[in-house]
Amino acid sequence: MNINIDQVQVSHVLEAYLCDIKTSKVTPLGNGLINTTYLVSSPARKFVLQRINHHVFTQPNDVINNADLINDHLYNKKQLGEYQLEPIWQVKSSNGNSMVQYKDNSWRAIQFIPNCYTVEEVSSAKQAREVARAFGAFTCALSDFPAEKLSEIITDFHNLDARITQLKTAKQNNSHQRLTKCHELVATCLAETAFISEVADIITQLPIQVTHNDTKINNLLFAKATNEPIAVIDLDTCMPGFVMHDFGDMVRTCCSNLPEDGTNLDQMTISMDIFKGLSQGYIESFNGQLSELEKQSLVIGAQLLPFMIGVRFLTDYLNGDSYFHTQYNTHNLDRALNQINMYQLLKSKREELSRIVSQTST
Ligand code: GN1
Ligand code: MG
User: Fold this and answer.
1) Which of 28, 42, 54, 149 lies in the 20 to 30 Å Cα band around 294?
2) Cα–ligand 2 centroid distance for 120 (angstroms)
3) Is the pLDDT of residue 167 over 90?
């Protein structure tokens, strides 16, 4: 092992998968903000090893169980020729468990798929269309899955009203004396009452679907042979939700020319071509099964996700960075400024976005 990780812990966990730390190479993988992920290459096999952040995922068992249920369903759909992507299995330990507990921490192993790569940034409208088609196909394949079987992994995860309440509480507590640094941004968010009401209204009318809730491009595996997505990964936040959440998170992470923590905000632009690619791919993946209201909701989702995640970053900044991993003192504040700026840009382009969505045939 050539990296600074808790060797004792990893070595215990590896034993549960019949691997020896001395002969295994363990390297960090990906750049998620919550869990810690490694690639393990042992002489016998290669797999992904992940420590589940138990502050965020307080019931790791539920996370793992949900993933098994979803994979089973996707596998059956694939057998029927109704799902073209690959389910990614969790690897059982030598005791036949999908989770390995070591002290306070829960670990799991996930199948490693060879000849694949992940992508951090969308590079064309064509690729955006494929990305959206993959995440859409995932939800579409789960449309006959009994959503009530899934545990609600994080209560109110994409509930805007609840996120606003959390922001108000963080403002009131001001536990890390950071309010002076961000009071204007807090006020900007809280002043968006018309949008907050619009969201509260539409969610009473939209049908519940099984959504992924973290539809960044880096949560797809691409095949080296075709350069197309072959699997949806990171099922941690799969829960009953609304399609506008998944579509909105794709817009949030694909349409801006800046990364989510980029600070040169006067240079931020939104790519309409990428937005169009996402709309086409997402809508067509449902084969006509999206309702008219769900289609219309996509534009609301495009504004909602940057706004809501901006509010979450800001709340975490006020709370002293207890949720998202950060690299420097104002990292969460920079992320929040970026996301709220993106929200405002999308808001100013709403008519154009609506036109694009309504012109996309189902
Ligand atoms: C978190 O760790 P990662 O990158 O998969 C977060 C998402 C946010 C994202 C922002 C469980 O996801 O909701 O969109 O950071 N996941 C959780 O980059 O809170
Ligand atoms: Mg995630």
Assistant:
1) 149
2) 14
3) yes
